[in-house]
Please model this.
Amino acid sequence: MHRTFLEKLLKLGRIPSGLLFYGPSGSGKTKTAIDFAKGILCLKKTPWGCDECASCRYIKDFENNFWKGETDNFKVYEESEGKKAFLYLRGEHPDFIFVPPHGNYIKIDQIRGIKEFVQVKPALSKRKVIIIDDAHTMTNQAANALLKVLEEPPEDTTFILTTDKKSTLLPTILSRTFTVEFKGFSPKEVKKITGVDDTIAKLSGGSLTKALLLKENTNLINKAKEFLKGDPLTVYKIADEFDKWDTSIKALFLELLESFLMDQILIQKKEELIPLMDRIRMLKDGFPRGLNGSLWLVEISAEVGGLV
Ligand SMILES: [Zn+2]
Model:
């Protein structure tokens, strides 16, 4: 599912400035991040890359060496005051860097390196891509420095963060990135382990925790569906309830809206709904900080109006 959705973004040329690939280790986040980067940078604008243009060839070369663990030639350091600090990996592609943890952490020097890279115009492709792998390993200092960059996202740069520990990332970083979830368990496995029904197993996105939370709050599924139908009375009623819910329930409700909208975009091909995904993401960011959730929901509903 995530691959189909990402491909859609590439085809439409709607590349968000920040993406977060989230899922258990071994679910292909880094691989997909590099593939997606290849697609963004491809000179022929082929989704996932044409594998033939100069841009694709540079990324492929990087990738081949990367998976073999042969990255010594790619390591970029910065010298300052006699000290050598590791910044990132960079192959032949001038518009692509890969930022892995150094030792156990991604450090502030590395974010400084990113900041400098952000300021340079793309040299080969139309955009630049920065992959921050295992983003949860950023030190506090590094995370705050990155946040400043994400707050004023450079138009020509896409950040792809990967993590298997979403909860340890700053909420403000989460809110500035579009989360793409990588499957942990298959719906069948979720069903078997947690005893939930097919609908919940599918909506859980492979997460057992989410499946259990949905099982305890099955009424939310119908509420989300009803909400999207847009009957004003129902919308106002749900919006009103929303403000009284716990944070975890609010987040779950918004994730359900995202799931149903994504179905509409992929299955019903309603691409005009894509901007709404952004609006919901912004609400997810805003409600912990006291943003008026009910008001936002009413506005979002007005935008969905008749589209679902
Ligand atoms: Zn290409």
